[in-house]
Specification:
By secondary structure, this protein is mostly helical. The chain is 76% helix and 2% strand. The protein has a domain at 270-467. 59% of the residues are buried.
C-alpha cells in the first residue's frame, strides 16, 4: 500500500530532474527516463501481486480518512492497467533512445513523457472523481505538447485540433462532476456510489451520463467523437503515437468511463444501448475509413477507432463474459497497437516515407521490424492462435450468449474487414520487391528500437496464456477479478469502504 504514491512520485521527480539536467547531458536524460519507467513497471507488478492477495488497496493521503480526505485506490482493474501501461511505457522509453535522436531537445520529450505517465497512473489510482479529472488533464495536456513535438505544420495543426477537442471534452466532464458534487455533496467515488444507491437521482444521473459519454467518449475517440485522432496519431512521433493509441485512449477514455458507469452510477439499459450504438459506429467507420489510407500511421489511427469499438461493445453488452472479453481485448490492443506504431516509426526511418505505395520489402531489409510487424498485424486481424483472435472471439460469443446475434455478426464482419485492409496495405510493404524510395534516416533497425519491438511481439504472441486456469496463472486471477469488479458494479463501494473500516 505504501508503494502506491510512488506511482506519482517517480514520474514527477523524473520530469523535474530531467528538466534540470537534460539540456547539459542528453545521455543522462536517456538513462533517467528509462530507469524511471523501469522503476514504475516494477512497482506496478509488485502492487498487482499485492492486489491478487488483498483485492483492494487504499492509501489515505496525509492519513486523512475519506471521504473528507483524499484516497488512492488500486483494485484488480486498475492494477491490471497499471501493469499494462507501465510495461508499454518502459519499452517505449527504451525505443525512444534511438528514435528521438533525429529531434532536437530530446530531454524535453522525456519531461513531457514522464508527466503524461504520471497523469495516467494518477487516473488509475484516483479514489475520488475530481482527482481523476485533474490527473486526466495532466496526461492530456502533456499529450497535446507531445503531438506537436516535431513542430512542423502538420504536427502543430494536429496538436491544435487535439487540444481544442480535448478542451471541449474536459468541459463536459468538469460540468458533470460539478453537478454530481452538488447533488451528492461528495467527490469520493465509493461514497458517491453509496449515496446514489440510496437516493437514485434518475433524471440528473441520466443528464450527467450523457455529459460523461461525450467527454470520455471523445477521450476514447469513439465515433462520432473521433475526428481528432487520425490527425494526432499520424502527426506525432512514433513513440507518442504508441502511447496515445496503445494506452492513453484506454486510460483517459475507456477506463474512466467504465469506472464511473459501472462502479459509481450502475449501468442503465439506456446507457448500455447508447454505448453499443457508439461501438458499432466506431467498428464500422474505423474499418471503412482505414481502407482508403495511403499513410501507414493514418491507417493505424483509423484501425484504433475500430478496435476501441470492440472494447466498447463488450462493455455495452455488459454480461460477465462480454466484460471479460472487453478487458482482454483492451490488454491485447494496448500491446499490438503500440507495437504497430513503433514499427511504423522504424519503417519510416528505414524507407524515408510513410506512403504505403512507396514502401516495400521491409522483411528483407529489416527482418526485426518486418517480422514483429507481421505478428502485430496478424494479432489485430484476429488470426488464431494469437491473443487478438481469442479476445474478439470471446466478445462475439458473449453477444450470442446475450441474445444479440446481429451484434455478433457485425463484430465478425468487421474483423474480416480488418484482415482485408491490413492484407491489402501491408503485404507489399513487407514482402514486395524493392521500389525507389526516399533515403531513410537509418539503414537498419538500431538495437534500442529493436529490443522493445521484439518484446512486444512476444507478449502479443503469448497473451493467450492469460486465459490459462487461475491455479497456474496469477495473471488470470487478476483478469477475472478485474472483470468481476465491473460485472458486480456497485460492490466496488462496499469493497473500498470495507478496507477503510
Amino acid at each position: 500500500m505504501q508503494l502506491i504514491p510512488y506511482l506519482l512520485i517517480v514520474p514527477l521527480a523524473s520530469a523535474f530532474i530531467i528538466l534540470l539536467v537534460g539540456k547539459r547531458n542528453e545521455k543522462l536524460a536517456d538513462l533517467l527516463a528509462v530507469t524511471a519507467s523501469l522503476a514504475l513497471a516494477v512497482i506496478s507488478y509488485y502492487i498487482a501481486g499485492a492486489v491478487v492477495t488483498h483485492k483492494v488497496l487504499v492509501y489515505k493521503v496525509g492519513n486523512w480518512m475519506p471521504p473528507a480526505g483524499i484516497s488512492m485506490v488500486v483494485d484488480s482493474l486498475s492494477a491490471l492497467l497499471l501493469v499494462t501501461i507501465n510495461t508499454v511505457a518502459f519499452l517505449v522509453a527504451v525505443y525512444s533512445v534511438g528514435y528521438m535522436e533525429k529531434y532536437t531537445d530530446k530531454w524535453k520529450f522525456y519531461t513531457l513523457f514522464s508527466l503524461m505517465l504520471a497523469g495516467m497512473n494518477g487516473v488509475l489510482g484516483a479514489g475520488d472523481i475530481f482527482n481523476l479529472y485533474v490527473f486526466l488533464e495532466i496526461a492530456a495536456i502533456s499529450g497535446y505538447f507531445l503531438v506537436a513535438f516535431g513542430i512542423d505544420s502538420d504536427a502543430l495543426e494536429a496538436a491544435f485540433k487535439y487540444a481544442v477537442m480535448g478542451g471541449v471534452a474536459s468541459a463536459f466532464i468538469l460540468l458533470g462532476i460539478g453537478l454530481l458534487y452538488g447533488a451528492t455533496s461528495t467527490l469520493n467515488m465509493a461514497d458517491m456510489a453509496s449515496f446514489i444507491v440510496v437516493n437514485k437521482l434518475p433524471g440528473m444521473l441520466f443528464f450527467v451520463s450523457v455529459l460523461f459519454l461525450m467527454g470520455f467518449g471523445l477521450k476514447a475517440a469513439l465515433v462520432p467523437f473521433h475526428a481528432w485522432l487520425p490527425y494526432a496519431h499520424s502527426s506525432a512521433p512514433a513513440p507518442v503515437s504508441a502511447m496515445l493509441s496503445g494506452v492513453s485512449i484506454k486510460v483517459l477514455g475507456i477506463y474512466a468511463l467504465a469506472r464511473i458507469f459501472f462502479n459509481v452510477f450502475g449501468l442503465s439499459p439506456a446507457i448500455s444501448w447508447i454505448l453499443i450504438t457508439l461501438a458499432v459506429l466506431s467498428m464500422a467507420a474505423g474499418s471503412l475509413l482505414a481502407f482508403g489510407q495511403s499513410d501507414i500511421k493514418r491507417l493505424l489511427a483509423y484501425s484504433s477507432i475500430s478496435q476501441i469499438g470492440y472494447i466498447a461493445l463488450g462493455l455495452g453488452v455488459a454480461t460477465p463474459l462480454a466484460i471479460f472479453g472487453s478487458i482482454f481485448h483492451l490488454l491485447n490492443h494496448s500491446v499490438f497497437k503500440s507495437l504497430l506504431f513503433l514499427n511504423s516509426g522504424s519503417i519510416e526511418n528505414i524507407s524515408g516515407t510513410r506512403d504505403l505505395s512507396r514502401i516495400s520489402g521491409i522483411i528483407e531489409k529489416a527482418p526485426v521490424t518486418g517480422y514483429t510487424n507481421l505478428v502485430a498485424a496478424l494479432s489485430i486481424c484476429g488470426m488464431p492462435p494469437l491473443g487478438g483472435f481469442w479476445s474478439k472471439l470471446i466478445i462475439i460469443l458473449a453477444c450470442i450468449q446475450a441474445g444479440h446475434a446481429v451484434l455478433a455478426l457485425i463484430a465478425a464482419v468487421m474483423s474480416m474487414l480488418t484482415l482485408a485492409y491490413y492484407f491489402r496495405a501491408l503485404t507489399p510493404v513487407l514482402f514486395g520487391k524493392e521500389k525507389n524510395q526516399a533515403p531513410g534516416v537509418i539503414s537498419k533497425t538500431v538495437w534500442s528500437m529493436a529490443i522493445p519491438m521484439v518484446i512486444l511481439a512476444v507478449i502479443s504472441a503469448t497473451s493467450v496464456f492469460l486465459l490459462l486456469p487461475a491455479k497456474w496463472n496469477g495473471a488470470n486471477i487478476l483478469l477475472q477479478d478485474a472483470s468481476a469488479i465491473l460485472a458486480d458494479g456497485k460492490n466496488y463501494a462496499g469493497a473500498v469502504i470495507g478496507v477503510l473500516r
